[in-house]
Amino acid sequence: MLRDAIVEGQFEAGMPLVEMFLADWCQVSRTPIREALRRLEQDGLIVRSERGMIVRERSPEEILDIYETRIVLEATVGRIAADRRSELDLRGLEYLLQVGEQVDPSDHSAMVDANDRFHRAVWRSSHNESLVDLLGRLNLHLARYPGTTLASPGRWETAIQQHSEVVRAIAARDGQAAYDVAWRHFSEARDIRVQLFASSL
Q1: Which fold is adopted by the domain 2-55?
Q2: Beta strands 46-49 and 52-55: pairing type?
Q3: Which residue in 80, 119, 178, 182 has its CB near the most CB atoms, within 10 A?
Q4: pLDDT tens, position by position, 86-112
């Protein structure tokens, strides 16, 4: 509940997180709030300051830091998926690719959902729980930034094409090709995300 409120922007960046207020807001005692704040700090969604715990500020530097890590991890998970994927994994990826191809680009919510389902399927196809966990944490950070890179003109069409290339590479067990496409895909997403942040200032 508290994590969702931070990710969705109900608690703005820089806002102090006071245990007593949060306990009342969540209708629980302060003990579970204290534990929740500890976990949120571990996830990097909140930080300690002179005012106590606050919601982490947003910045272009953070975007670049997140994507610097995400690009490497997404490319790596693609390469590992090409090696470890099962036939069931491949069928799931092909199905989700078709789902994405049928999405109306004017429906941003549907785009985001289809895109998220596809990438999580790639993660699962790697059969590497450590990578899945790390990528899930990075997604939490990106979710704090409003808007979607997929709404940029032509981006959805490009993303679908790149998704298709990733699936072909994974199907062919071509780890290097999957790595290269994923690297390009997320590098382009990073550039769009920085532009979105700059335009919101």
Answers
A1: Arc Repressor Mutant, subunit A (1.10.10)
A2: antiparallel
A3: 178
A4: 999 999 999 999 999 999 999 999 999
